[in-house]
Amino acid sequence: MKKLTSILLIAEDVDSGTRILEKTIQLARSFGARVELLLGNPRDAKDFAALCTARGYDEVVLCSVFRCAEPLNYVILRRAFERSPDLVVKAPAGGHEDQQLAAACPVPLILMRELPWRSPVRIAAAVDISSDDSALARSLVHTSGFLSFGVEGELDVLYSEREQQDEVLRMARAVKLARLMREFRIDGEHLRRINGTPEETLPLIAASGDYDILILGALSHHEGLSASLATLTRKLLAAFRGDVVLVKEASRASAGRSYVPLKSRAML
What we know:
Mean pLDDT: 86
Distance between the termini: 24 Å
Number of domains: 2
Structural class: alpha/beta
Low-confidence stretches: 220-225, 255-268
Number of strands: 10
Strand order of the largest sheet: 3-2-1-4-5-10-9-6-7-8
Largest sheet: 10 strands, mixed
Radius of gyration: 18 Å
Order of helices and strands: EHEHEHEHEEHEHEHEHEH
CATH topology of the largest domain: Rossmann fold
């Protein structure tokens, strides 16, 4: 993520939509971004318009779309490709739906819950540097640094080292991640290196309540990633009670901006 000037927020009802709108406004004002509020029910427009007027949410533009029988993910994706926001925000749906949306979405996706953020906001980014292909790790580190700087939050970069025997390999991976963090101007003190497999360590950290925002890679079987990695993401989504940011590698996210008809798009 290189900029944040436009946010697409999906509100499925007034109650939950009002609470995540408050947090989205906080995020938008940290970056000077505008917010397009996509309403799941056009009848909510009057309530949201009154709310935005009363609270001075001048950066919000209300819109509703004709949904008919389309799944909500299709509506969101169509709007994302039409409007080209820098970020999509919605409440979690649960199950596979959120991973499906993140895999197809051309920009990072925030699954935002109603819990308020602490001050300062506590952010964790789970990064896997063990693969030879570091494109996703690069996007995760870049996005986490960008967001934490914008909201003046406290960032931890989490790396779970599964290798227990080969010290040379362990050190090479640590150096690789440290170099990547320096590239995006993140101090080494923000690195939290944990011994153990991600499947064992990360769900416990996610469930600890230490963080407000967790940044993860957006996984898709169609990208050749293993089922265990997709399962880990689902476990983290279930364990974490705060907001989750799902990020794809920059090259794939950029390629996604070329429009493909939704009904022919491969999903999880």
